[in-house]
Specification:
By secondary structure, the protein is an alpha+beta fold. Among the domains are: 121-225, Chitinase A, domain 3 (Roll), CATH 3.10.50; 229-330, Chitinase A, domain 3, CATH 3.10.50.40; 367-458, no CATH class. The protein has 22 helices and 12 strands. Strands 4-3-6-5 form a 4-stranded antiparallel beta sheet, sandwiched between helices.
């Protein structure tokens, strides 16, 4: 122990002395070495003051550290590091810890900023859709892509976009609106569609864009500054079959009364058939673009009003007849006011997942990912229904078993490696056999990508390795103490009683008093009791 303390003191005070062996082994447990540098890292972290760098302090901490490592070793021997629960929890921590070393450390901020910038504008666009499910077979996906590509070529050759949308788009609404979607702003369309629409110039047709609905081409018809929100009050008279003329006459009578100076609130209370608002002057909650998309005439009339107090002409919708009064226009708030709300939306929006997937592809590229497409295709075609039951019956030829599937981080993984991994992850699925095997393959690649990335980060950032060890060993320590101490203690009531009886002197109550408390409104009686 004295020798170990000496090495630690020497490393702390003069690390250059270890130039030939920069990370000597401090001690070994069951052939598992612990380096001096790891101990120094933890000691410094828990003893930030240089006054703590004494032989006594180091020896005390070293004793604790050895006991800690013994518990961790026992946790490994009991297999706590192989459970699905442990792996899942560790991956959660690992993903968080790796963010500062990854390109996506600012991803949420960038996406939030992008959403806010898009909120400043409203885009009017038309589109042509060819449907393709996300889990469609490759041949079906290719068929859909070729179809949308042919349409795009026809547009580039001068054919009319609107006509082709009406004839060929698989969006049912295109039959009557020629693919025109009207105006929209940020977070009102699926993210890939929004992103491409905002990047395309007015009058131009976009590149082909893939969404969860299929393949689109987008024609941007207009782009203008966002109008923010409006707050309005309204009078509603509902129509039904046979009373249309009567209702129309009534709404125009009220309009004339308003023009003559009649109180708005009185007319609303006496006549409006919107029971939710008639008693508060007809006031509605503020809304923005497409906030009342089911009644487009109402939204258009509301945004057409310019000054607070201005009243619209009577107009008809599918609900009935309306008169609207503008209460106020609400411009887009500054970014500082919307940031938290937008971040919350973005974190739950598909744009975050899509962007993370793109970064994952980049991460694999940076790690030198190379795939053997031919070997992968052969393997995927070997999937059968037994795989879906978690009982895959596969026989690989020696040649295929040894064939390299892909390389990442300078390390190759064979078809045999993948099949062995699948056999360890026996689970059932409702996907098609090839679809499920593809999903498993992607998970296998992701797992090895994470491992390769860990190694890269560890080499470039030694402290990351120690930080990961802290989390890994912290989880293991909790597991072994919970299972071997806390749970056993709570279940062993006989043992607890025995221990209590054998150590009664430790559980004696302190000094106590015995007292009676009297409460009375009679002061004379109280004095008599006291005496």
């Amino acid at each position: 122990m004295k020798k170990a303390v000496f090495f630690v003191l020497l490393l702390i005070s003069a690390q250059s002395a270890f130039a030939q062996n920069p990370n000597p082994i401090l001690f070994t447990i069951d052939k598992n070495p612990t380096s001096t540098r790891e101990f120094v890292y933890l000691f410094k972290k828990n003893h930030p003051s240089k006054s703590d760098f004494s032989e006594q302090k180091i020896e005390e901490y070293l004793n604790l550290f050895v006991n800690f490592k013994l518990k961790i070793n026992e946790a490994h021997l009991r297999g706590y590091d192989t459970t699905a629960k442990f792996k899942k929890e560790l991956k959660t921590y690992s993903d968080e810890l790796k963010k500062p070393y990854r390109a996506e450390k600012d991803l949420l901020n960038k996406l939030t900023n992008e959403a806010y910038q898009n909120l400043k504008y409203e885009v009017k666009a038309a589109h042509i859709l060819i449907q393709a499910k996300q889990d469609a077979a490759p041949e079906d996906t290719l068929k859909a892509y070729n179809k949308i590509n042919d349409i795009k070529t026809r547009i580039q050759n001068g054919e009319d976009f609107e006509k082709l949308a009406q004839e060929l788009s698989e969006d049912p609404s295109a039959k009557y609106n020629n693919g025109n979607l009207g105006y929209f702003t940020a977070m009102q369309m699926v993210y890939p569609f929004e992103k491409v629409a905002y990047q395309t110039k007015v009058g131009e047709v976009s590149p082909i864009v893939r969404t969860r609905f299929g393949y689109h081409i987008i024609k941007v018809l207009d782009k203008k500054d966002a109008r923010g929100e409006v707050e309005v009050s309204h009078i509603l008279l509902r129509t039904s079959k046979g009373n249309e003329a009567k209702v129309k006459d009534h709404i125009f009578e009220m309009y004339d009364q308003l023009k003559s100076g009649r109180s708005w609130n009185e007319l609303v209370k006496e006549n409006s058939e919107d029971n939710n608002t008639k008693n508060n002057g007809g006031k509605l909650r503020p809304f923005g673009l497409n906030g009342i998309s089911s009644v487009p005439e109402f939204e258009a009339a509301a945004f057409a009003l310019q000054k607070p107090g201005e009243i619209s002409d009577p107009f008809q919708s599918n609900i009935g007849w309306h008169i609207i009064r503008l209460e106020r226009k609400i411009p887009l708030p500054p970014f500082s006011e919307l940031e938290a709300q937008l971040k919350n939306k973005v974190s739950r929006d598909e744009r975050l997942k899509i962007s993370e997937n793109l970064l994952a592809v980049k991460r694999k590229t940076d790690l030198g990912f190379k795939e053997n497409a031919e070997a992968k295709s052969k393997l995927i075609n070997l999937a059968d229904s037994s795989l879906l039951k978690g009982k895959w019956k596969i026989v690989l030829s020696d040649e295929l078993k040894k064939t390299n599937l892909y390389t990442i981080g300078g390390k190759g993984f064979t078809t045999g490696d993948f099949v062995a991994w699948v056999m360890q992850h026996k689970a059932t699925s409702k996907l098609s056999p090839t679809g499920y095997l593809t999903q498993l393959y992607n998970s296998f690649v992701d797992e090895k990508t994470d491992a390769a990335e860990d190694e890269k980060i560890k080499k470039e950032n030694p402290d990351f390795q120690y930080l990961m060890s802290e989390y890994r060993e912290g989880i293991l320590l909790f597991e072994i103490i919970e299972k071997e101490v806390w749970n056993k203690a709570s279940d062993d009531s006989v043992g607890q009683r025995k221990y209590y009886n054998e150590h009664l002197d430790k559980y004696k109550a302190g000094s106590r008093i015995e007292a009676r408390i009297f409460t009375t409104p009679d002061k004379t009686f109280l004095e008599a009791i006291k005496s």
